[in-house]
Amino acid sequence: MELVFDRVTKQYKNKIAVDRVSFSLKKGVYGLLGANGAGKTTLMRLMCGILKPDSGEIFYDNIKVEEESYRDILGYLPQEFGYYPEFTAMDFLMYLASLKGIPKKQAKKKAEKLLEMTELTHEAKKKIKTFSGGMKQRLGIAQSLLNNPKVLVMDEPTAGLDPKERVKFRNLISKLGNDRIVLLSTHIVSDVEHIADVILVMKEGRIIHRGSLDEIIKVMDGKVWECTVDDKTAENLMENYLPLNIRKEQKGTVLRLVCEERPVESAINIEATLEDLYLYYFSDTGQEDRTI
Amino acid sequence: MLRFSKLQMKREMKRLYPAPNPQRKEEFLREFPYFRASCMEIIRNQIGYIQKSIWIFSLLLVIGGVAVGDYLDTGSNYDKIWCMSGIMPLLAVLAVTETFRSSVYGMTELEMACKHNLSQVLLIRMGVLGGVDFLLMVFGVLWIVGQGTIGMVQAAVYLMVPWLSACIVAFQIEKYTRGRETVWYCTAWGCFLWGVHGIGSKLREMVYGEEKFYLWFIAFCICIVFFAKQIWQIYQETEEWRNGCGASI
């Protein structure tokens, strides 16, 4: 079970969305992290055969992703999806099951099971247009699992879910990752932190980092500092270094900064988190081309 | 010596040698190659998902055309052709908007990632809706020919040209617009053709005259070429999804 990206490039007019990306995915949960416009959605669409690469190839165990046999083992949750206005939750699942080639009888059983799993059993016969954002998202998750996919691609699956639903989703994904390839993208750093076995950091169409949480964070070792300073010093520090967090307290301003050397005498070196790394790479402070 | 019946024997065996607990049952069921739906089942399913209102409106249009044609029948050769060809653009627009429902309601991306993807769905829908329109057209031709003055080929061309031209423009509209806009523009186009047709009612003798038929035939040939080209393009384009490319990178 291996999904291979081999020097894949995709360009829209003047913008290179995916730039000569090469990697391979095996069983497990992969988290794709990147800012808006980094190329995550394009990468996922390429992986699902929805878009064709301008150059390079993507294949799963020697099957090209454009082939029907690949789509047969694929589950996909797009960032945004619509539905026909007359559809109930059950109709929606039955319709997509028919496109996935699942016979009616079997599809009904599977749909009922998935509705139960996503806690939508009582809403099975309700029109989707009456659903909240979270319910629609859960329905989207359910449809992606209809054909028991070996490759599961989820673009922002936790968007719209409340914290309780997110925890349930994380547990579900962890289970699913045992015997399939799961790739998910999200802006919610803590989700990636909790679920993903391997994290892929994407920037300007390229995978700039790949590894486990510890490996990824390692590059930030010794670079994250915390200090409590007066307002004037805080302003000075914020001008010169990238502030990861600013908190006002009675004794002064508590700053969390990233820099190579100790910024002030009182600063203490602290353990970096994935959020620090994310902010370091994707903050809008004009330091766009950071590399460590 | 104890003698057991077959049934008793089975019972005893079960008691003495209990069956082991199933191992990796879940995995086995997950990996089990279940039967997949046949091609016919997929087509049947797709037919079931075509809105009933489309069938009803199409039928009502044809019934309306026939009723108005019979009511207006002044003995002229062309009353029935005029009525029936007038409803053809509306029939075409109904079929086209239903075919492209996926992009109107944002289902394109989901359908493209399914085993039987958007290209197949579009082909099935186009085939079914076009087929039904064709049957309605055959009915219309037979109804017109029943009057006895116009030939079957001639009647077919008079009905096909407005249907094809409405389809061709509606396909173009679908290409350049998104969402519900597509439905509105296509409906407007169908109504426009219907209106123009209505305004030209006094010219029907001239328009459908025998001596002008060659123009209709040329128009028919051109429409067929464009129509076939568009169907091919649609099939090709859905192979690579272009809806909203770049909108969300």
Layout of helices and strands, plus pairs?
The complex is a heterodimer of chains A (292) and B (249).
Chain A: E1 3-12, E2 15-25, E3 28-33, H1 40-47, E4 55-60, E5 63-64, H2 68-71, E6 74-77, H3 89-99, H4 104-117, H5 133-144, E7 151-155, H6 163-176, E8 181-185, H7 189-195, E9 198-203, E10 206-211, H8 213-218, E11 224-229, H9 231-240, E12 242-249, E13 252-258, E14 268-269, H10 274-282
Chain B: H1 6-16, H2 25-31, H3 39-48, H4 52-72, H5 79-99, H6 101-104, H7 108-112, H8 118-145, H9 152-176, H10 180-199, H11 204-207, H12 213-239
Helix pairs in contact in B: 4-5, 4-8, 5-8, 5-9, 5-10, 8-9, 8-12, 9-10, 9-12
Plain-language structure description:
The complex is a heterodimer of chains A (292) and B (249). In chain A, 33% of the residues lie in helices and 29% in strands. By secondary structure, chain A is α/β, with parallel strands linked by helices. A six-stranded mixed β-sheet of chain A has the order 6-7-8-3-9-10, with helices on both faces. Chain A has a four-stranded antiparallel β-sheet with strand order 2-1-4-5, covered by helices on one side. In chain A, strands 12-13-11-14 form a four-stranded antiparallel β-sheet. The longest helix of chain A is centred in the middle third of the chain and has 14 residues, at 104-117. Residues 286-292 of chain A have low confidence and may be disordered. With 249 residues, chain B is mainly alpha-helical. Chain B has one domain. Chain B is built from twelve helices and no strands. Chain B has helices at residues 6-16, 25-31, 39-48, 52-72, 79-99, 101-104, 108-112, 118-145, 152-176, 180-199, 204-207, 213-239. Chains A and B meet through helix 1 and helix 3 of A and helix 3 and helix 7 of B.
